[in-house]
Design a protein that fits this description.
It is a multi-pass membrane protein. This is Membrane protein. The chain crosses the membrane at residues 66-95, 228-247, 253-278. Among the domains are: 1-62; 107-208, no CATH class. Helix content is 83%, strand content 0%. It is built from eleven helices and no strands. The chain has helices spanning 2-36, 46-62, 66-79, 83-127, 132-143, 150-158, 163-170, 179-192, 196-244, 249-255, 257-285. Helix 3 runs antiparallel to helix 4 (83-127), helix 4 (83-127) runs antiparallel to helix 5 (132-143) and helix 10 crosses helix 11 (257-285). The protein starts with a helix and ends with a helix.
Length: 287
C-alpha cells in the first residue's frame, strides 16, 4: 500500500513538471500565431492559463534552488522518511548562495565588456574631432559602461567638474576597474596635453587582451567543471541503478542502521569532495 502511494505521488509530481513545461510551449504557440497574423488566436482555458502564470511567477520569485526542496519531498515520499526533506531544505541556502554568486560574476563580466565598449567608443569620438567632454558624453550614452555612476560622470563632463575623480569613483563597481585607466588617460591628457586617443587605444587593447585571457582560462576550466558535476551526480545515478535492479536502495539507506551510517559517511565524503574540487577550480580561475 505504501509503495503504491509513493508511486502515485511520484507520478503526480512528474505530471506537474510536465504541466509546467508544456505551458511554456503553449504560450510560444499562441505568440507565434498572434505575431504571424494568421487569424484569430484560439483562446486557452482561463483557469489553465491563470494557474500556469501563478506557478511561473512563484518559480521566478523563489529561484531554482527550491527545486532541491521539491526533490527532497519527492524522495521523502518514495522512501517514507524525513531525511531527504531535511537535506533538501538544507540545500536551498547553499544553492541560493551559488546562484547569487553566479549572477554577480555574470554582472562583473557584463560591466567589464561595457567598459571596453566605452573606451573604444570614446577613442572613436575623439579621433572624429570632438572635444573630450562631448566625446565622453556620446560614448557614455551609447555604451552604458559607466553603470550606476553614469550620472555623476556625465554631470562632471558636461559642467566642467572633476571627470577623472568621477571615473575613479565609478571604477569601484565590480568589473569596472578598467575605468581607473580611463581616469588616468583623462588626467594625463588634461594636465600634460598628451594625445587622448592614443592612450585610449592602448587602454582598449589592454582591456581586450585581459578579457580574452580570462575567457581562454574559463574555456580551459570548463572540462574540470563538467567533471566535478559528473562526479557529484554519480551517487544519484547509483540510486537509480539500484532501484532499477529492485534492490530498494532508499529503504536500505533510510531505514537500516548500516544504511544510515553509509549515508552519513558518503554524504560527508561527497561534500568534502565537492568543496575541494570547487576550491581547486576557483583557485585556478583566480590566477
Amino acid at each position: 500500500m505504501i509503495g503504491e502511494t509513493s508511486m502515485g505521488a511520484a507520478l503526480v509530481c512528474l505530471g506537474a513538471l510536465a504541466w509546467l513545461l508544456g505551458g511554456r510551449h503553449h504560450g510560444i504557440r499562441r505568440a507565434r500565431l498572434l505575431l504571424a497574423g494568421g487569424g484569430e488566436v484560439p483562446p486557452g482555458p482561463p483557469a489553465w492559463d491563470q494557474t500556469l502564470g501563478e506557478l511561473r511567477r512563484l518559480r521566478d520569485r523563489l529561484g531554482a534552488e527550491w527545486w532541491t526542496l521539491a526533490a527532497g519531498l519527492l524522495l521523502g515520499l518514495l522512501g517514507a522518511s524525513l531525511i531527504p526533506v531535511v537535506a533538501g531544505a538544507a540545500g536551498v541556502p547553499v544553492l541560493r548562495r551559488a546562484r547569487l554568486a553566479r549572477q554577480a560574476r555574470r554582472g562583473r563580466e557584463l560591466r567589464a565588456d561595457a567598459v571596453i565598449a566605452l573606451c573604444g567608443a570614446f577613442a572613436g569620438e575623439v579621433r572624429a574631432g570632438r572635444q573630450p567632454g562631448e566625446a565622453l558624453l556620446r560614448a557614455a550614452r551609447d555604451s552604458g559602461g559607466l553603470g550606476e555612476a553614469q550620472a555623476a560622470v556625465v554631470a562632471a563632463a558636461r559642467f566642467g567638474g572633476d571627470v577623472s575623480g568621477a571615473l575613479a569613483a565609478a571604477a569601484r563597481q565590480p568589473g569596472a576597474e578598467g575605468l581607473l585607466g580611463l581616469a588616468a588617460c583623462w588626467r594625463v591628457a588634461v594636465d600634460q596635453g598628451a594625445g587622448l586617443a592614443a592612450g585610449l587605444d592602448r587602454l582598449d587593447a589592454a582591456l581586450r587582451a585581459e578579457r580574452d585571457q580570462r575567457a581562454d582560462l574559463h574555456a580551459q576550466l570548463a572540462g574540470a567543471r563538467a567533471t566535478t558535476v559528473l562526479l557529484a551526480a554519480l551517487p544519484a545515478l547509483g540510486l537509480l541503478l539500484g532501484s532499477a535492479m529492485g534492490a530498494e536502495p532508499l529503504h536500505v539507506l533510510l531505514h537500516t542502521g548500516a544504511g544510515l551510517g553509509c549515508l552519513a559517511i558518503g554524504s560527508a565524503f561527497e561534500a568534502a569532495g565537492l568543496w575541494w574540487a570547487v576550491r581547486i577550480v576557483r583557485g585556478a580561475g583566480a590566477l
